[in-house]
Design brief:
This protein has 12 helices and 9 strands. The chain is α/β, with parallel strands linked by helices and 344 residues long. It folds into 2 domains: 231 residues, Spore Coat Polysaccharide Biosynthesis Protein SpsA, Chain A (Alpha-Beta Complex); 101 residues. Strand 2, helix 2 and strand 3 form a beta-alpha-beta unit.
Length: 344
């Protein structure tokens, strides 16, 4: 349990083989965050280079901020290191800062000043794609994948974020206490964003500078992490739900695949089935079991009319009618505060 103290900000810095950048990073922290009400928590994630020795030496330096060092015996991953850091921090605000200097500490200070001076803001994400700040992108594919992942995330969660993968994030301690992170690797960014939104916290964004480094210079994100990001997107949206929601997702995806089967021929028919299946999964997130079954009933009734394209049109019209009817029932029940609202 977090104890009251005079620490206003905890900066969590996961470190894995970053000896090239640590001295400059430390100087930048000293420049922008050297205050007695700030603590800096370095988490050495099983580094094999000189990172551990350098971080140990920093203990002897003179600084106003509270210095904390956690040494993990082996490399567990960024997500694990961040979680360990937060477990051992005391700040009212928590700021996540990468050690590779791809992001500017000046921007970190700017974002912290914004959130600490506006009590209505719970969470701010840095964005490498907003504003006219200085940027250097080395890899077109990485940038394209990051933007596409953000697009998919926004589609799944109904958001309009511009950069879910940016490592610079700051949030109130109360935000973190409402979530439960399980990812140990770079999937942390996706899981953190999803849980914050699922708990109905509003996410603000601030544009930041970005200086992408090359693989030769130590960049650790690989194409494997890129593929895993799609699994995490699927997991946080469709698997990390209650049993009733999972059942609703299953039923709605199946009946929407049934709707798709009435459209196209050959490969086109398969594509329609897949598209409608995915649409059904999204619908299942927004509906309860009774709503889902009611919509399926409308679709089934629609399939009893017409032939060929006429049947396809009938199914589509009855699907729309089912959605409209369920929506009206949900609204009526909600307004009357009926005990049946949980069914819809």
């Amino acid at each position: 349990m977090h104890q009251e103290n005079n620490i206003n900000l905890s900066i969590i810095v996961p470190v894995f083989n970053e000896d090239t950048y640590l001295y400059k990073l430390y100087d930048e922290i000293n420049r922008y965050f050297n205050e007695s009400n700030i603590e800096v928590v370095f988490v050495n994630d099983g580094s094999k280079d000189l990172s551990k020795n350098i971080l140990e030496d920093f203990k002897n330096n003179k600084h106003k901020f509270n210095y904390v060092l956690i040494n993990l015996q082996r490399n567990f991953g960024k997500g694990y290191a961040v979680k360990e850091g937060i477990k051992n921090c005391n700040g009212k605000y928590i700021l996540l800062q990468d050690a590779d200097l791809e992001l500017d500490l000046k921007d970190s200070k700017e974002i912290y000043d914004i959130i600490s001076n506006d009590k209505s803001i719970d969470c701010i994400f840095g964005s490498r794609y907003l504003s006219g700040k200085l940027k250097r992108h080395n890899y077109f594919i990485n940038e394209l994948a990051g933007k596409f992942n953000t697009f998919v995330f926004n589609l799944f969660f109904g958001q309009s974020l511009s950069d879910i993968h940016c490592g610079l994030k700051v949030f109130k301690r109360e935000v973190y206490e409402k979530i439960d992170l399980n990812v140990n690797d770079f999937g942390l960014e996706i899981e953190l964003a999803s849980q914050i939104i699922k708990n109905n916290f509003q996410v603000y964004e601030v544009g930041v500078s970005y200086f992408s480094r090359s693989v030769k210079a130590g960049k650790k994100i690989t194409w494997i992490d890129g593929l895993k990001s799609y699994y995490y997107l699927f997991k946080v949206r469709f698997l990390d739900n209650t049993k009733s929601t999972l059942l609703s997702i299953l039923i709605s995806s199946l009946y929407m695949a049934f709707v798709g089967s009435f459209f196209g021929m050959g490969l086109g028919n398969t594509i329609f089935i897949v598209i409608f299946f995915i649409l059904g999964m999204i619908i299942g997130l927004k509906t309860k079991i009774f709503s889902t079954l009611s919509i399926f009933l409308f679709i089934y009734i629609g399939s009893l009319f017409g032939n060929g394209q006429g049947k396809a049109l009938s199914v589509l019209l009855f699907f729309i009618l089912g959605i409209f009817t369920v929506y009206k029932i949900k609204t009526t029940i909600k307004n009357k505060h009926s005990k049946f609202s949980n069914l819809f």
